[in-house]
Every structure is written in C-alpha cells, then in structure tokens.
Hints:
With 164 residues, the protein is mostly helical. The chain has helices at residues 16-38, 50-77, 96-112, 117-143, 145-153. It has one domain.
Amino acid sequence: MEPIHKQGPGQEHQKSHIIQLFAMIIFFIIWIIDSFIFTFSTILTGYIPIIIQIIGFISFLPLGLILSFRAGHVIFQAENSNKLITTGILSHTRHPLYLGVLIIYVGFIFLTMSLISIVGLIIAFLLYNYIASFEENELIEIFKEEYLEYKKRVPKWIPSIRSR
C-alpha cells in the first residue's frame, strides 16, 4: 500500500492534514472558550441584533462550503492529470479550497461576535498560507513558467470577480 503523502514535486505538504486539523482545533478552542465560557470579547452581541448575527452566519457558512466543494470537485477530478488547472473557480483564486474553510471560520465569528476569535482566524490563515506557499513552490517546480504566468494573473487569496 502506498503512503498517503508521497515525497517529490507536486505532492501536498507531508503534514498538511495535521496542520489543517491543528488550525481548526486552535480556532474552535478560542471560539468556544470566548463565546460560551468566558465571553471576554463578545461585547458586540449587545449591540448587534441576533438576527444580523444569524444572517451573517448563514451567509458565510454556505459560501465557504460551496467554495470548498466546487474547488474540491475540480481539484480531485483532475488529481491524476499532469495538466495545470486554471479554469472554473481556479481562474478566480489560486486556493479556493483553503479560502472556503477560512470563510466558514468567519461565519462562526459572526454567529457569536467573538472578537478574540479573530486571533484564531489569523493563526488559521497563517497555517493555511504556509501550506499554500509550499504547494505553490511544488507547482512551480513542475509547471515552471506556466505556473508563474498563472500566478501573475490569479490572486492567491482574494478572489478576482472577472474570469481570467
């Protein structure tokens, strides 16, 4: 049986799943402790109506899920292809799967207005950015100039509205 994480160009970071799990655990520990136990920074809940909080949550959660699902569908269908994927959602942002997860975290912040949870979001972002940068270096090694051109056209995180 082959290992899940093979070494060599084009492979995901060897500890990608552990890093992502760590990011999720850190975020949710901070969010739960602040939102439901100590409520250090949930002062905005007294000023922002619960309906606005719920609307924020139910807006960001599906957005993140849809983005992650669409990205995963494209990426995993072309997993054994030796071609650089630059169409669909990947023509708007280079890391839509990771961005979708981060957007889901934003939805949870909206739900309880936990400002300290923004620290957890920043930590998660830094970890995802580390993985994304590793993967980009792998893709540069494989696709060379083609990936560098793609990198110039498509933003890493903030999606471009117009298709490239």
